[in-house]
Amino acid sequence: MTPTAIVIVLVSALAHAGWNLFGKKVSPTGAFFWYSTFWGAFLTLPVLLYYHRMLPELDTGIWWLVVATGFFQATYLSSLAAAYRHGELSVVYPLARSSPLIILLVGTLFLGTAEAITTAAVVGIILIVAGCIVLPMQRFRDFTLANYRNLATLFALLAAASTAGYSMVDDLATERMRALLAGLAQDAEVALVFVILQAWSALCWLSLGLWLQSEERRLLRELAANWRSTMAAGILILGTYALVVWAMAYADDVSYVVAFRQISIPMGVALGWYFLGEALHGPKVVGVLTILAGLLLVVLG
Predict the structure, then answer these.
(1) Contact assessment for residue 166 and residue 72, using Cβ atoms and an 8 Å cutoff
(2) Where are the domains of the chain?
(3) Is 103 left (phi over 0), alpha (psi -120 to 50) or beta?
(4) d(CA 177, CA 62)
(5) Helix (H, G, I), strand (E, B) or coil at 114
(6) End-to-end Cα separation, the chain, in angstroms
(7) In the chain, how long is the greatest CA-to-CA distance?
(8) How far is the C-alpha of 141 from the C-alpha of 209, rounded, in Å?
(9) DSSP secondary-structure letter at 102?
(10) Which of 29-33, 71-75, 254-258 has maximum average pLDDT?
(11) DSSP type of residue 16
(12) What distance in Å separates the CA atoms of residue 172 and residue 170, rounded to the nearest whole number?
C-alpha cells in the first residue's frame, strides 16, 4: 500500500470507529439504515448535480455496476441488522468485519489478480481474521463451534459476503470511471460521485425490501422523529466509505484496503476503554496485538 492509501484509510477507520462509538446504543433495523441511506443520498444530491457533467460520460457497463453495488450494499445493511437482532455484538461484529478478507482472497484467485498480493499480506490477512475472532471473547474457552451455529452467524456471513461483493464491484467500477473521466475529474471526485450513486442505488433496493416487510414499514414511521440520529449516521457512513473508495485508487489490490480498514477495530477497543470504561480482557489484548501484527504485514506487503 502507498503512503497516500494508508493515510486515507487511517482517517476512514478513525471515522468508522467514532461512528461505532456514536451508534453503540442504537438498535440497527432495516428502517434505521433506510433513513441513514436516504439522508446520505439526499444531502449529497447538490454534489451530484455539481458534477453532472460526469454522468453522460459513463457507459452502460458502469451503470450496471452501480445497480449491482447498490444491491450488495442494501443486502449488507439488511443482513447486519438481522444478525444483530438474532445474536450478540461480540460474535456478529468480528465475523462481519473479518470474513470479507477471506472471501476477497478467494475472489482474487478467480479474477486473476492474486499475483498482486504478496505472501506477507496473505499472512497478515489471516492474522487479522484470527485476531477479530479472538478479540471479543472474555475467556479463551469461549471459542466453541456451538456459539456460531445460529441465525446470527448466517446473517453475519451474508453481510460479509455482501461486503466482499460491493468492494470488488466498487474497485472495478471506479477503475473504469477513472479511465473514462481522465482529464475531467480527479480520483477523489470520482470516488465521491460513485459513492453518491451507490447510495441512491442502495436506497432503491432498501425501499423494495421495506415495501415487502410490514414490520419495517411500522418502524420507519416510528423513526421519523429521530431524524437527527439517522442523518448523522448517514453522513458518517457515506463519508467514511467515500474515503475507502478513494483509497482503492492507490492500492495494488482491493484486499489491501479492506484488510487495512480493520485498524478501526483496535481504534474502537481503545475508544471503548477510554470513553466507556470497557474492560481489557486477556483475549481482547491478544486479539488487538494479533490484528496489529497482521496490519503491519499488510502495509509492508
Answers:
(1) yes
(2) 3-300
(3) alpha
(4) 8
(5) helix
(6) 7
(7) 58
(8) 39
(9) H
(10) 71-75
(11) H
(12) 5
CB 245 within 8 A of CB 194: yes
Q: Which residue is listed with cell 449491482?
A: 68
Which pLDDT tens digit goes with each residue over 124-160? Answer: 878 888 887 787 677 777 777 766 677 877 888 898 8
Q: Give the closest residue to 10 by CA, choosing from 216, 230, 299.
A: 299
Cell numbers given for 6:
494508508
Burial class (CB in 10 A: 0-12, 13-18, 19+), 105: buried
| pLDDT confidence bin for 74, thresholds 50/70/90 | very high
> What is the grid cell recorded at 134?
479472538
Instruction: Specify the amino acid at residue 152.
Output: A
- Evaluate whether 104 touches 254 at the Cβ level (below 8 Å): yes
| Rounded distance between C-alpha atoms, residue 227 and residue 32, angstroms | 10
Alpha-carbon gap, residue 5 to 23, rounded angstroms: 26
List Cβ neighbours of 224 (8 Å cut-off, separation of 6 or more): none
Residue 17 grid cell = 470507529
Residue type (1 letter), 57? E
Residues 6+ apart with CB under 8 A from 272: 21, 278
